[in-house]
Amino acid sequence: MIFGKMTPLRITSYTYTTCLGAGLNANWDAIQAGRSGLQPCTFFRINDLDTWVGEVAGLDQALPPSLAEFDCRNNRLSWLALQQDGFITRAQSAIARYGAARVGIFIGTSTSGIHQTELAYFANQDPLPAWYQYRTTHNVSSVATFVRAALGASGPAIAISTACSSSAKVFASAQRALNTGLCDAAIVGGVDSLCLTTLYGFHALQLISPRKCQPFDSQRSGISIGEAGGFALLEKTGDSNLCLLGYGESGDAYHMSSPHPEGAGAQLAMGAALRKAGLDTSAIDYINLHGTGTQTNDSAEARAVQQLFGNTTPASSTKGWTGHTLGAAGIVEACIALEAINYHYLPQSLHLQDVDEGMDIALLKHPETRPVARVLSNSFGFGGSNCSLILGSH
């Protein structure tokens, strides 16, 4: 069925890479240690932005010769993330099992390899340098094409770019493709890398913080931008008890960049996810909040959560560890949600000290160890593009 309660999809493999490190263990060890990956911004020798970023190490090495036409920072980050936790082996096993044409690729990104165009511009040549290939680097669909080429799949390949909800929406698109028979397995993910466009763009919007981000804190002053890549393998059957149970999508239709002040769209997305999962709010053990650290986002999200869940369901933002990874935020926080279920551990909102007025929800200032069976993960993008996922054991 497309509407109503969905049949859970098995998540048979997943991995993510952030400024905390490459792969599940590196990230989870840092989260449990309360160690942020944010550092003062030195990306591309920037010296005029007073902010902190989540920069991933190890992106200096070019792609293998067979993938050289895709070489750019964004696809190097994709390649680094794909190689963690045996993900390539599990994905290629699924491709062998179902057939290459029956495995779909669904990848979210906001700016893709736009930094490659920035480098071409700085080369100051007319025409642009011969090494610059827009189609396989900057083009928003290039990351999905790269992942398909790297894994050897030939099913449908779709790139979704809806700002910060991009790699949450890939789960919804993949479920619909599986449900309608377009494919038998889906590789979903998100990759977004640092570039001057986003750093200076958010600076122009007066949204970047001079400190490590402090979502929901009374002293919060904006976001810390990060970069990340992550992937998950979705199948109708499998040996994993971790599942996509539901998803909800909505559009605010309110403002080009600001969320609806009452969180109307966010509440719609969360409610739709609960209906899709056939659950009520009491079944959710933890909410991974979008929680960027901006005044408007945190206020709107808190109101939406309070109206739907009240103030008892534990909730936190994990952007204090990774920064806001924009188009990769959905997959990163889905992976953190799955790890919370695996370890029965709820991470705190790092850097939260003094909860702001009006945030009447159960924000975690300290980690908690308790049974966790189902997590709701929010991703809310510019323009009011909202997506909520419900992940859980089944």
UniProtKB/TrEMBL annotation:
Q: Which InterPro entries match?
A: Beta-ketoacyl_synthase, Ketoacyl_synth_AS, Ketoacyl_synth_C, Ketoacyl_synth_N, PKS_Beta-ketoAc_synthase_dom, Thiolase-like
Q: Which PROSITE patterns does the UniProt record give?
A: KS3_1 (PS00606), KS3_2 (PS52004)
Secretion signal span:
none
Which Pfam family, any one, appears in the UniProt record?
A: ketoacyl-synt
Query: Can you name one GO molecular function term for this protein?
Result: 3-oxoacyl-[acyl-carrier-protein] synthase activity
Q: Which CDD domains match?
A: KAS_I_II (cd00834)
According to the lineage, what is the superkingdom?
Bacteria
Gene3D superfamilies membership: 3.40.47.10
Which keywords belong to this entry? Answer: Transferase
Q: In which pathway does it act?
A: Lipid metabolism; fatty acid biosynthesis
Q: Which SUPFAM superfamilies match?
A: Thiolase-like
One Gene Ontology term from the biological process aspect of the record: fatty acid biosynthetic process
* Gene Ontology CC: cytosol
> Domain Ketosynthase family 3 (KS3), which positions?
6-393
The similarity annotation says:
Belongs to the thiolase-like superfamily. Beta-ketoacyl-ACP synthases family.
NCBIfam families given in the database record: PRK09185.1 (NF006618)
Q: Which protein are we looking at? A: Beta-ketoacyl synthase
Q: State the organism of origin.
A: Cellvibrio japonicus (strain Ueda107)
